[in-house]
Amino acid sequence: MPADTNPYGGVFGGWLMSQMALAAGSLASRVGRGKAVVVSATDFAFPGAMAVGDELSVYCEVLATGNTSLTIAAESVARERNGEATVKVAGGTFKFVLLDEDDRPRTAVLPGKVST
């Protein structure tokens, strides 16, 4: 929306990052089977421009699993509003820590994994 634009009329990079964090957080909660919070965001690049009204898709993949954390890559692709043309508009990496019911870090017990 127009409120999410930078002074040059393009979509603000901070808005893109927040959408990516939401998507990556959804994957972290699903894979980690519980509460997951962002502790860092790195390696961000904005190779393309997104216009107001474009459709945004965010694709995420778990890159690494730590004792209490998940590292997730996120890629954002914009599709023009009235067509099929797409462009990669952002990419970056998020690290999440899995939390227990007392908001303390908990061991990552993931589907298909056996904890030791």
UniProtKB/TrEMBL annotation:
The keyword Hydrolase applies. One of its GO terms (molecular function) is long-chain fatty acyl-CoA hydrolase activity. GO terms for biological process: acyl-CoA metabolic process; fatty acid catabolic process. Gene3D superfamilies: Hotdog Thioesterase (3.10.129.10). This is Acyl-CoA thioesterase. One of its GO terms (cellular component) is cytosol. The keyword Transit peptide does not apply. Keywords: Hydrolase. Belongs to the acyl coenzyme A hydrolase family. Pfam families: 4HBT (PF03061). InterPro entries: Cytosol_ACT, HOTDOG_ACOT, HotDog_dom_sf, Thioestr_dom. Residues 1-102 form the HotDog ACOT-type domain.
